[in-house]
Write a structure and sequence with these properties.
374 residues, Rossmann fold, 2 domains, 7-stranded mixed β-sheet, 6-stranded parallel β-sheet, 15 helices, globular, binds zinc ion, zinc, metal-binding, EC 1.1.1.-
Length: 374
């Protein structure tokens, strides 16, 4: 089979690898149908995730079909159509019992991190019964793919931890894939304003298209003043920080209203300053964490009911054999107007799932690129 293999900073290759095998009784093998690239994959590529060893197949968001089950698997069967979420969990250890599946003592972020991941034609998924989600009939597979990471991350780590509520002024800092997914999830709670802040006008346009009431391009560094104007000088009831750098963390603190709640989704690589000296009298709450994927079943119901369409976050389609080209596009996301890039395998074609590798879209992109190069 083919897989995307990481060979150290900046080096990836699409190459042959042996088919994965059942290694533990609770494993299943999944034939990947669709997978997608994540900002975390780019961090790995930059050498920013040292736990990822050279030789590792990366990728942690996919959908596919179960082709083999281990002897301890009870709830899944061969041919089940499933979401492979970013974190796996046993459901039985102490953190799992507390609902902290991302901190599972036997699981957590394994795929594409400490074991081979899902940017491949097949993948071994451990702790399968308690980790995979069956895709109900009538749910678009690309919508389901968005539930492997970005939608539950936006909802669980962002919207729920910031306690977004009816009539709130919400600010989302960062309108990349996770920021946009956060906006979609926030709409379930009916905030009065959803203000998106970014440096990229295309992403801000997308934010407006999917539900942001106001957008701010912070190229001029005036986001604080603009949020204050939009909120009659009070600031935001809820701020969700999706970037993970000291400047945006500082901005988040400056735009919080009294009693405001801040949730951090962004992954920080540096320590930051928390201004207790000005925040302590103002009843501020700060929360952070990693997605537990506990809301995937609810999100699937919302997709099934037609009340959530996360496939609107898909900007590009490729066949998985074009994955290196897809990475080039994703690395230049702003220039290429890329949000989520879906890669489909021949399994998707066989299953007749819709929007398969979207040949027309692919041809359109090629023609556009050729025309642009003339
Ligand atoms: Zn991800
Ligand atoms: Zn566990």
């Amino acid at each position: 089979m083919k897989a995307l293999v990481y060979y150290g900073s900046g080096k990836i290759s699409w190459e042959d690898k042996p088919l994965p095998k059942i290694e533990h009784p609770a494993d299943v093998i999944v034939q990947i149908s669709k997978t997608t690239l994540c900002g975390t994959d780019l961090a790995i590529l930059r050498g920013g995730v040292p736990d990822v060893q050279p030789g590792r197949t990366i990728g942690h968001e996919a959908t596919g079909y179960v082709t083999e089950i281990g002897p301890a698997v009870q709830d899944l069967k061969v041919s089940d159509h499933v979401i492979i979420p970013c974190n796996t969990s046993c459901g039985r250890c102490e953190p799992c019992r507390k609902g902290l599946h991302s901190s599972c003592e036997r699981g957590g972020w394994l795929l594409g991190h400490t074991i081979d991941g899902v940017q491949a034609e097949y993948a071994r998924v451990p702790l399968a019964d308690s980790s995979l989600f069956r895709i109900p009939d009538g749910v678009d597979e690309e919508a389901a793919l968005m539930l492997a990471d970005i939608l539950p991350t936006g909802l669980e780590v962002g919207v729920k931890r910031a306690e977004v509520g009816l009539g709130d002024a919400l600010v989302v800092i960062g309108a990349g894939p996770v920021g946009l997914a956060t906006i979609l999830a926030a709409e379930f709670y009916s905030p009065a304003r959803i203000i998106a802040i970014d440096l990229d006008d295309n992403r801000l346009a997308k934010a407006r298209e999917i539900g942001a009431t106001d957008t701010i391009n912070n190229k001029d560094g005036k986001a604080r003043e603009k949020v204050m104007t939009l909120t009659e000088g009070r600031g935001a009831d809820a701020v969700i920080e999706v970037i993970g750098n000291p400047a945006t963390f500082q901005l988040a603190q400056e735009i919080l209203a009294t009693g405001g709640r801040m949730a951090n989704i962004g992954i920080f690589h540096k320590s930051t300053e928390l201004h207790n000296e000005t925040l302590w009298t103002r009843n501020i709450t700060l929360r952070m964490g990693v997605v537990d994927n506990s809301t995937v079943p609810v999100l699937l119901k919302m997709v099934q009911a037609g009340r959530l369409d996360p496939s609107s976050l898909v900007s590009h389609h490729f066949h998985i054999n074009e994955i290196l080209e897809a990475y080039e596009i994703f690395k230049n996301a702003a220039q290429e107007q890329a949000i989520k890039i879906v890669l489909s395998t021949d399994a998707a074609k066989k299953a007749g799932s819709n929007k398969v590798s979207n040949d027309n879209e692919f041809i359109r992109q090629i023609v556009e690129r050729v025309l642009a190069s003339l």
